[in-house]
Design a protein that fits this description.
73% of the residues lie in helices and 0% in strands. The chain has a domain at 124-279: MetI-like (MetI-like fold, Orthogonal Bundle). The chain has 13 helices and no strands. It starts with 30 loop residues before the first helix and ends with a helix.
Length: 324
Protein backbone atom coordinates (compact mmCIF):
# COMPACT_ATOMS: atom_id res chain seq x y z
CA UNK A 1 0.00 0.00 0.00
CA UNK A 2 1.12 3.49 -0.77
CA UNK A 3 1.03 6.08 1.92
CA UNK A 4 -1.15 9.18 1.27
CA UNK A 5 0.72 12.39 1.79
CA UNK A 6 -1.22 14.78 4.02
CA UNK A 7 -0.52 18.53 3.72
CA UNK A 8 1.38 19.91 6.59
CA UNK A 9 0.11 23.21 8.00
CA UNK A 10 2.20 26.32 7.33
CA UNK A 11 3.41 28.00 10.41
CA UNK A 12 4.98 31.07 8.80
CA UNK A 13 1.66 32.78 7.78
CA UNK A 14 -1.48 33.52 9.79
CA UNK A 15 -5.01 34.20 8.62
CA UNK A 16 -5.07 37.82 9.89
CA UNK A 17 -7.47 40.32 8.37
CA UNK A 18 -6.01 42.79 5.90
CA UNK A 19 -5.38 46.20 7.40
CA UNK A 20 -6.58 49.18 5.32
CA UNK A 21 -5.98 52.89 5.74
CA UNK A 22 -8.69 54.62 7.85
CA UNK A 23 -10.60 57.49 6.09
CA UNK A 24 -9.58 60.98 7.02
CA UNK A 25 -12.16 62.97 8.99
CA UNK A 26 -14.04 65.55 6.97
CA UNK A 27 -13.17 69.17 7.46
CA UNK A 28 -15.61 71.05 9.72
CA UNK A 29 -16.69 74.68 9.85
CA UNK A 30 -14.51 75.16 12.92
CA UNK A 31 -11.46 74.25 10.84
CA UNK A 32 -12.28 76.90 8.18
CA UNK A 33 -10.68 79.88 9.98
CA UNK A 34 -7.52 77.85 10.58
CA UNK A 35 -7.44 76.83 6.94
CA UNK A 36 -8.02 80.42 5.90
CA UNK A 37 -5.20 81.62 8.10
CA UNK A 38 -2.89 78.86 6.94
CA UNK A 39 -3.54 79.20 3.20
CA UNK A 40 -4.75 82.82 2.92
CA UNK A 41 -7.82 81.76 0.90
CA UNK A 42 -11.42 80.95 1.64
CA UNK A 43 -11.77 77.11 1.42
CA UNK A 44 -15.39 77.42 0.23
CA UNK A 45 -14.86 79.82 -2.67
CA UNK A 46 -11.12 79.84 -3.18
CA UNK A 47 -11.14 83.66 -2.97
CA UNK A 48 -8.57 85.59 -0.94
CA UNK A 49 -9.39 85.79 2.75
CA UNK A 50 -9.58 89.59 2.88
CA UNK A 51 -11.98 89.70 -0.08
CA UNK A 52 -14.20 87.01 1.46
CA UNK A 53 -14.28 88.87 4.78
CA UNK A 54 -15.20 92.17 3.11
CA UNK A 55 -17.97 90.52 1.11
CA UNK A 56 -19.37 88.91 4.25
CA UNK A 57 -19.26 92.24 6.08
CA UNK A 58 -21.03 94.01 3.19
CA UNK A 59 -23.73 91.33 3.12
CA UNK A 60 -24.29 91.64 6.87
CA UNK A 61 -24.49 95.44 6.61
CA UNK A 62 -27.00 95.26 3.77
CA UNK A 63 -29.17 92.79 5.70
CA UNK A 64 -29.11 95.05 8.77
CA UNK A 65 -30.09 98.05 6.62
CA UNK A 66 -33.06 96.15 5.22
CA UNK A 67 -34.25 95.29 8.71
CA UNK A 68 -33.96 98.95 9.78
CA UNK A 69 -37.13 101.10 9.52
CA UNK A 70 -37.13 103.32 6.45
CA UNK A 71 -37.22 106.59 8.36
CA UNK A 72 -34.07 105.60 10.29
CA UNK A 73 -32.00 104.83 7.21
CA UNK A 74 -29.30 107.43 6.50
CA UNK A 75 -30.44 107.67 2.90
CA UNK A 76 -33.73 109.06 4.20
CA UNK A 77 -32.68 111.66 6.79
CA UNK A 78 -29.12 112.53 5.80
CA UNK A 79 -29.94 114.64 2.67
CA UNK A 80 -32.57 116.79 4.38
CA UNK A 81 -30.36 117.18 7.45
CA UNK A 82 -27.49 118.47 5.34
CA UNK A 83 -29.83 120.79 3.45
CA UNK A 84 -31.26 122.26 6.67
CA UNK A 85 -27.77 122.85 8.04
CA UNK A 86 -26.69 124.59 4.84
CA UNK A 87 -29.81 126.78 4.83
CA UNK A 88 -29.24 127.64 8.50
CA UNK A 89 -25.69 128.79 7.80
CA UNK A 90 -26.83 130.84 4.81
CA UNK A 91 -29.63 132.36 6.93
CA UNK A 92 -27.17 133.44 9.61
CA UNK A 93 -24.90 135.01 6.99
CA UNK A 94 -27.86 136.85 5.48
CA UNK A 95 -29.00 138.03 8.92
CA UNK A 96 -25.58 139.55 9.55
CA UNK A 97 -25.54 141.29 6.19
CA UNK A 98 -29.21 142.36 6.12
CA UNK A 99 -30.54 142.66 9.70
CA UNK A 100 -33.49 144.73 8.48
CA UNK A 101 -34.71 141.78 6.36
CA UNK A 102 -33.74 138.57 8.21
CA UNK A 103 -33.60 138.23 12.00
CA UNK A 104 -31.03 135.85 13.54
CA UNK A 105 -32.28 132.34 14.18
CA UNK A 106 -31.74 132.71 17.92
CA UNK A 107 -34.16 135.67 17.97
CA UNK A 108 -36.82 133.58 16.21
CA UNK A 109 -36.29 130.75 18.68
CA UNK A 110 -36.53 133.18 21.59
CA UNK A 111 -39.86 134.43 20.28
CA UNK A 112 -41.19 130.89 19.91
CA UNK A 113 -39.96 129.63 23.27
CA UNK A 114 -40.86 132.81 25.13
CA UNK A 115 -44.59 132.65 24.40
CA UNK A 116 -45.48 129.23 22.93
CA UNK A 117 -49.17 129.33 23.92
CA UNK A 118 -49.66 132.49 21.86
CA UNK A 119 -48.45 130.74 18.70
CA UNK A 120 -50.27 127.48 19.46
CA UNK A 121 -53.63 129.22 19.93
CA UNK A 122 -53.30 131.25 16.73
CA UNK A 123 -52.04 128.23 14.78
CA UNK A 124 -55.06 126.20 15.94
CA UNK A 125 -57.45 128.89 14.71
CA UNK A 126 -55.73 129.06 11.32
CA UNK A 127 -55.73 125.25 11.04
CA UNK A 128 -59.46 125.09 11.79
CA UNK A 129 -60.24 127.66 9.11
CA UNK A 130 -58.05 125.80 6.62
CA UNK A 131 -59.57 122.36 7.24
CA UNK A 132 -63.19 123.56 7.30
CA UNK A 133 -62.70 125.54 4.10
CA UNK A 134 -61.01 122.54 2.50
CA UNK A 135 -63.89 120.27 3.52
CA UNK A 136 -66.40 122.66 1.94
CA UNK A 137 -64.36 122.79 -1.26
CA UNK A 138 -63.98 119.00 -1.33
CA UNK A 139 -67.71 118.30 -1.04
CA UNK A 140 -68.77 120.92 -3.59
CA UNK A 141 -66.08 120.12 -6.14
CA UNK A 142 -66.59 116.34 -5.86
CA UNK A 143 -70.33 116.62 -6.48
CA UNK A 144 -69.76 118.92 -9.46
CA UNK A 145 -67.01 116.63 -10.80
CA UNK A 146 -69.43 113.67 -10.80
CA UNK A 147 -71.99 115.77 -12.65
CA UNK A 148 -69.35 116.92 -15.15
CA UNK A 149 -68.22 113.37 -15.86
CA UNK A 150 -71.74 111.99 -16.26
CA UNK A 151 -73.68 114.82 -17.92
CA UNK A 152 -72.12 116.76 -20.80
CA UNK A 153 -74.60 119.62 -20.32
CA UNK A 154 -73.37 120.17 -16.77
CA UNK A 155 -69.77 120.17 -17.99
CA UNK A 156 -70.49 122.89 -20.54
CA UNK A 157 -72.27 124.99 -17.90
CA UNK A 158 -69.90 124.57 -14.94
CA UNK A 159 -66.42 124.58 -16.44
CA UNK A 160 -66.44 128.19 -17.74
CA UNK A 161 -67.59 129.49 -14.35
CA UNK A 162 -64.94 127.40 -12.56
CA UNK A 163 -62.21 128.78 -14.81
CA UNK A 164 -63.35 132.35 -14.13
CA UNK A 165 -63.26 131.74 -10.37
CA UNK A 166 -59.80 130.24 -10.67
CA UNK A 167 -58.29 133.25 -12.46
CA UNK A 168 -60.06 135.84 -10.28
CA UNK A 169 -57.79 137.42 -7.64
CA UNK A 170 -59.47 136.38 -4.42
CA UNK A 171 -57.66 139.12 -2.50
CA UNK A 172 -59.92 141.59 -4.29
CA UNK A 173 -63.03 139.60 -3.33
CA UNK A 174 -62.21 139.32 0.37
CA UNK A 175 -63.32 142.87 1.37
CA UNK A 176 -66.59 142.38 -0.49
CA UNK A 177 -67.16 139.14 1.39
CA UNK A 178 -66.67 140.99 4.67
CA UNK A 179 -69.34 143.49 3.63
CA UNK A 180 -71.69 140.67 2.66
CA UNK A 181 -71.11 138.24 5.56
CA UNK A 182 -69.73 140.40 8.36
CA UNK A 183 -66.61 140.02 10.47
CA UNK A 184 -67.20 136.41 11.47
CA UNK A 185 -65.42 133.30 10.15
CA UNK A 186 -67.65 133.02 7.06
CA UNK A 187 -65.52 135.25 4.74
CA UNK A 188 -62.35 133.36 5.68
CA UNK A 189 -63.98 129.99 5.06
CA UNK A 190 -65.31 131.13 1.68
CA UNK A 191 -61.92 132.43 0.55
CA UNK A 192 -60.20 129.21 1.64
CA UNK A 193 -62.84 127.07 -0.10
CA UNK A 194 -62.52 129.06 -3.33
CA UNK A 195 -58.75 128.66 -3.36
CA UNK A 196 -59.03 124.87 -2.91
CA UNK A 197 -62.03 124.39 -5.20
CA UNK A 198 -60.53 124.34 -8.70
CA UNK A 199 -57.66 121.82 -8.24
CA UNK A 200 -60.01 119.23 -6.73
CA UNK A 201 -62.67 119.79 -9.41
CA UNK A 202 -60.29 119.37 -12.34
CA UNK A 203 -58.40 116.36 -10.98
CA UNK A 204 -61.48 114.43 -9.87
CA UNK A 205 -63.30 115.15 -13.15
CA UNK A 206 -60.33 113.90 -15.17
CA UNK A 207 -59.98 110.84 -12.93
CA UNK A 208 -63.63 109.89 -13.30
CA UNK A 209 -63.29 110.01 -17.09
CA UNK A 210 -59.95 108.11 -17.21
CA UNK A 211 -61.46 104.62 -17.21
CA UNK A 212 -60.25 102.59 -20.24
CA UNK A 213 -62.88 102.03 -22.91
CA UNK A 214 -62.64 98.18 -22.84
CA UNK A 215 -63.45 98.23 -19.12
CA UNK A 216 -66.55 100.37 -19.71
CA UNK A 217 -67.65 98.11 -22.56
CA UNK A 218 -67.30 95.04 -20.36
CA UNK A 219 -69.50 96.53 -17.65
CA UNK A 220 -72.07 97.52 -20.27
CA UNK A 221 -72.18 93.95 -21.54
CA UNK A 222 -73.15 92.72 -18.06
CA UNK A 223 -75.88 95.38 -17.88
CA UNK A 224 -74.23 97.37 -15.08
CA UNK A 225 -76.15 100.50 -14.16
CA UNK A 226 -74.57 103.96 -14.15
CA UNK A 227 -74.45 104.12 -10.31
CA UNK A 228 -72.76 100.72 -10.25
CA UNK A 229 -70.20 101.80 -12.83
CA UNK A 230 -69.63 105.01 -10.89
CA UNK A 231 -69.06 103.21 -7.59
CA UNK A 232 -67.11 100.17 -8.82
CA UNK A 233 -65.18 101.62 -11.78
CA UNK A 234 -65.03 105.41 -12.03
CA UNK A 235 -64.40 106.30 -8.38
CA UNK A 236 -61.56 103.75 -7.89
CA UNK A 237 -60.04 104.96 -11.15
CA UNK A 238 -60.14 108.56 -9.91
CA UNK A 239 -58.39 107.91 -6.57
CA UNK A 240 -54.83 108.57 -7.87
CA UNK A 241 -56.03 111.89 -9.33
CA UNK A 242 -57.85 112.73 -6.11
CA UNK A 243 -54.77 112.18 -3.97
CA UNK A 244 -52.72 114.23 -6.42
CA UNK A 245 -55.19 117.07 -5.87
CA UNK A 246 -55.16 116.64 -2.10
CA UNK A 247 -51.37 116.92 -2.06
CA UNK A 248 -51.84 120.35 -3.60
CA UNK A 249 -54.83 121.66 -1.70
CA UNK A 250 -53.91 120.57 1.84
CA UNK A 251 -50.89 122.91 2.00
CA UNK A 252 -52.79 125.39 -0.17
CA UNK A 253 -55.59 125.54 2.38
CA UNK A 254 -53.12 126.94 4.92
CA UNK A 255 -52.18 129.64 2.42
CA UNK A 256 -55.85 130.38 1.78
CA UNK A 257 -56.62 130.72 5.48
CA UNK A 258 -53.67 133.11 6.00
CA UNK A 259 -54.67 135.23 3.00
CA UNK A 260 -58.24 135.36 4.25
CA UNK A 261 -57.11 136.45 7.72
CA UNK A 262 -54.99 139.21 6.22
CA UNK A 263 -57.51 140.61 3.77
CA UNK A 264 -60.82 139.70 5.42
CA UNK A 265 -60.41 141.39 8.80
CA UNK A 266 -62.41 140.20 11.74
CA UNK A 267 -61.36 138.77 15.06
CA UNK A 268 -57.72 139.53 15.86
CA UNK A 269 -56.78 135.83 15.90
CA UNK A 270 -54.93 133.50 13.58
CA UNK A 271 -51.39 133.48 12.26
CA UNK A 272 -52.35 135.65 9.29
CA UNK A 273 -53.56 138.39 11.60
CA UNK A 274 -50.44 137.91 13.75
CA UNK A 275 -48.22 138.47 10.71
CA UNK A 276 -50.16 141.60 9.72
CA UNK A 277 -49.90 143.13 13.20
CA UNK A 278 -46.23 142.19 13.56
CA UNK A 279 -45.34 143.70 10.19
CA UNK A 280 -46.97 147.00 11.17
CA UNK A 281 -44.88 146.99 14.39
CA UNK A 282 -41.66 145.91 12.61
CA UNK A 283 -41.36 142.70 14.68
CA UNK A 284 -39.39 140.51 12.29
CA UNK A 285 -38.90 137.67 14.76
CA UNK A 286 -42.67 137.32 15.24
CA UNK A 287 -43.25 137.37 11.48
CA UNK A 288 -40.73 134.64 10.76
CA UNK A 289 -41.78 132.59 13.79
CA UNK A 290 -45.34 132.57 12.43
CA UNK A 291 -44.08 131.68 8.94
CA UNK A 292 -42.04 128.83 10.43
CA UNK A 293 -45.12 127.41 12.15
CA UNK A 294 -47.17 127.72 8.95
CA UNK A 295 -44.48 125.83 7.05
CA UNK A 296 -44.53 123.06 9.66
CA UNK A 297 -48.32 122.84 9.45
CA UNK A 298 -48.28 122.57 5.66
CA UNK A 299 -45.51 119.96 5.71
CA UNK A 300 -47.35 117.90 8.34
CA UNK A 301 -50.57 117.94 6.31
CA UNK A 302 -48.69 116.89 3.18
CA UNK A 303 -46.99 114.04 5.06
CA UNK A 304 -50.35 112.80 6.37
CA UNK A 305 -51.89 112.81 2.90
CA UNK A 306 -48.86 110.96 1.48
CA UNK A 307 -49.06 108.29 4.19
CA UNK A 308 -52.79 107.76 3.60
CA UNK A 309 -52.20 107.57 -0.15
CA UNK A 310 -49.64 104.79 0.28
CA UNK A 311 -52.10 102.82 2.39
CA UNK A 312 -55.08 103.29 0.11
CA UNK A 313 -53.28 103.01 -3.26
CA UNK A 314 -50.88 100.19 -2.41
CA UNK A 315 -52.33 98.32 -5.40
CA UNK A 316 -51.52 101.10 -7.88
CA UNK A 317 -48.48 100.94 -10.16
CA UNK A 318 -47.08 104.19 -8.75
CA UNK A 319 -46.62 102.54 -5.33
CA UNK A 320 -46.17 98.88 -6.18
CA UNK A 321 -42.57 99.33 -7.34
CA UNK A 322 -41.70 102.38 -5.31
CA UNK A 323 -37.92 102.78 -4.81
CA UNK A 324 -36.58 102.33 -1.31
Amino acid sequence: MTAIDTPTPRTDQTDAPEVTDAPEPAATAADAPAATVATGTDPATGAPAEQAASEASATATEAAARRMPKFLRPSRWAPITVMVLVLGVLWQIGAEQMPYLLPPLQNIWSSLSGNPLFYIENAWITLQEALIGLAIAFVCSSVLAIGISEIPLVRRAVMPVAVVLNVTPLVAIAPALVVAFGFGPEPKLIVTALICFFPILINVAVGLRSVPTPVLQFYRTVNASRPEMLWHVRIPSSLPYLFAALKIVFPLSIVGAVVAEMFAPGAAEGLGTTISLASSNNQLQVIYASIFILALMGSALLAIVTAVERRVLHWHDTHRHEPE
